[in-house]
Specification:
Layout: H1 6-10, H2 18-40, H3 43-60, H4 72-82, H5 99-110, H6 116-127, H7 132-139, H8 143-153
Helix pairs in contact: 2-3, 2-4, 2-5, 3-4, 6-8, 7-8
Length: 164
């Protein structure tokens, strides 16, 4: 097991270090995959988004630097931005195929009216479990703006979302 922090791996001398990138993937792919599922409501779509996210990470690795020891906040942010706003899924099919997909579809329908930056803040906080400070840093806004946005948008999520 590689004892280096995510930040150290990300900033390795050789930014093309595939083994460092592989270590980051191994550490975080499950959390990012679950986050992608929560964004899409579909395990198949989540797998596609997971792969697209890590492709973006690889392409943009020289332009981005994790602010903390963990790269997870930046990975979740890239998952959110990789998924084009026009492709957001609002599942309409009530399939008994996967109870998790049906439950997540309900959550996505409850927040379908939330758009733009407020939607991203809500997703990063609720689905990604990032702190107000982490979200503020990622989005270059004040923590008070994050709290204000969450206060305005959390109403539809009063019930538990999805436990991990």
């Amino acid at each position: 097991m590689d004892a280096r922090t995510d930040r150290d791996l990300w900033l390795s001398e050789d930014r093309d270090d595939a083994s460092a990138f592989g270590t980051l993937y191994d550490r975080h792919h499950e959390a990012v995959h679950l986050y992608c599922f929560r964004l899409t409501g579909s395990w198949v779509a989540a797998e596609d988004l997971l792969l697209a996210t890590f492709v973006q990470v690889w392409r943009r690795r020289a332009d981005l630097t994790p602010a903390e020891e963990s790269a997870l906040p930046i990975l979740l942010h890239l998952a959110t931005t990789t998924m084009s706003r026009g492709r957001r899924l609002i599942p309409t099919q009530r399939s008994a195929q996967d109870k998790g997909e049906a439950a997540m579809g309900d959550v996505l329908r409850r927040i379908a009216h939330v758009r733009g930056r407020q939607r991203e803040i809500l997703e990063l906080h609720t689905f990604g479990r990032l702190s107000d400070a982490q979200i503020a840093h990622l989005l270059s806004i004040q923590e008070s703006s994050v709290r204000w946005s969450l206060d305005r948008t959390r109403g539809p999520l009063e019930e538990p979302v999805i436990s991990s």
